[in-house]
Every structure is written in structure tokens, then in C-alpha cells.
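Please check this.
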Amino acid sequence: MHWPLTKNQDIYVVDIDIGKSCKTTEFAKQLPNQHINVGIAEQNAAGLAAGLATTGKIPFISTYAVFGSLRMAKQIRQEVCYPHLNVKIACSHGGLTPANDGGSHQAIEDMGVLRTIPNMTVVMGADYTSTRRLVAKAAEHYGPVYLRFTRDTIPVIYGEDEEFEIGKAKQLKDGKDIAIIANGDTVHLALEAAEALEKSGVSVKLLDMHTIKPLDREAVVECLRTGRIITVEDHNILNGLGSAVSEVVAGEGGAIVRRIGVQDKFGESAPYEKLLEMNGITVKNIVQTAQSLVKVHR
């Protein structure tokens, strides 16, 4: 699909020879002088982007999540975050969505690795609308930002007029029995689960935590009123959304947390839905987990 691009002369795309897959070829067609393809050289791309940022440009590095986080980790830390440069790392194929490509291409630890680096902001939209808005917000936000995208299409949740703010969660439902906090491509699963739970008489508070760093601490503290929190993510349950929420809960106290996500294991070659099922990232498991918590602790 062709989109007319605003001709902001400060925004550059640093491509890593996968522009066709990541759709940055459209940017190159419309703004060729602001598009740089460094070839298959992610670490070089980080250094080049850092150099652009020192001249006042706003570079977006475009690659797959497994490369843009892990292969570039040293350069991101030393050349982007340490000097606090205005570089955006925009990565497709986050989580299990590479599916049939297998565990080597499935970035299940990327957000966790990068959220531990000082000065880094970590963001993942839940659908088409939120992703577009958050990319624009990332361009306006000064400093390093990691933007994580899925590979496959996911249902649209938000209307075109919805506004988003980095570091501020979106509340999709308010309830008193249990809180569900989801991120990225799992938000639509959490929404479906919340609707099923409400039909069974369970009142659900549902948050789209699109920014896991800085985490919306205030929104998590509000969830403590329910006494029960479930986190849902297409990411390792270690060091991702579930860990970030648990850190707040541990500091504040007052809630039980159950983390639904990749169960600290590598993925394998299989259809995306099958991989989600193997890790319990399903509507059914969210509903059953919530029902068990509410039943036991009411």
C-alpha cells in the first residue's frame, strides 16, 4: 500500500538490505535522499545512525527484531544509549511471528534485553492504528527508542481518532475482580478473553501497556485494587512485560501476578497460532487463569 510521506528532511531510514520485507522500499521511492541501505551489516547501521543523530537527523534503523536487538546490542549500548542519541530502532518480526522460520529468527528476548539499557524507551503497538500513532510519537520523542512490530496482520482495535502517549497505558476496560495487562499482538487476545470473562460474571480491568519502558507505574498501581493481575505478552516471561509489572507490584505489594507468555524456551518451526498455543498464549488460557484466581481468592 502506498502512503504519501511528509517530507521531513531530518528523518532518515537506515536499511539493512531487507527493505522489501520491512516495506521501507516505499520510503526509498518517495524520499530517496533520506534512505541509506548499508547491506547486511546491522552493527554498522547502528554506528551510522548514531553519526546521523549527532548532526541533528532522526534516523530509523529498519530490520528484524532478532537482529536489531541482539546482534546490535553492543553498538546500541555504547554508541546510541550511552551518549543518549536520538536514534530509533524499528524492528519487524517481533516475538513468535516469524513462526515457520524457527527459533533462530523468533525474537523472544528483545524487549527485555533492551529495556535494561539506560536511556532506552521500549514500545510496541497493539494494532495498525496504535502502531502508526506510536511511530509518529517516537519521531517526536528525543532519545533512543526501540519500536517492535509483528510480522502477521492482527485485528484493528482502535479507531483512527485514538490518541497515544509514550509511557501512558491505554485502558480498554475497567473492572474490580481482576486486571489483565497485555502488550502488542496479544492485546486482541486479552480483549477477547476479557469479554468472555465478563459474560461469566467476572469484572475485568484491561490495559494495553504499549510502552514497557518507561512503564506506566501509576496504571499498574491502580490494578493493585483488584488484588489479581495477569500479564500477557508474545515475549519471554522473563524480563519483559510480566517482569516489569512484577517489579512494580513487588515494590507496592497487594496483588498476585500470573505471567502468560513464552515459557523461557526457544521457539521452533511451526504455524504462529500453534506456537502461541504451545506457550499458553491463548484466549482459553487467559480465561482459565483468571477464573482460577478469582475463584480461589474471592
User: Anything to note?
Assistant: Residues 114 and 169 are 19 Å apart (CA to CA). The longest helix spans residues 283-297.
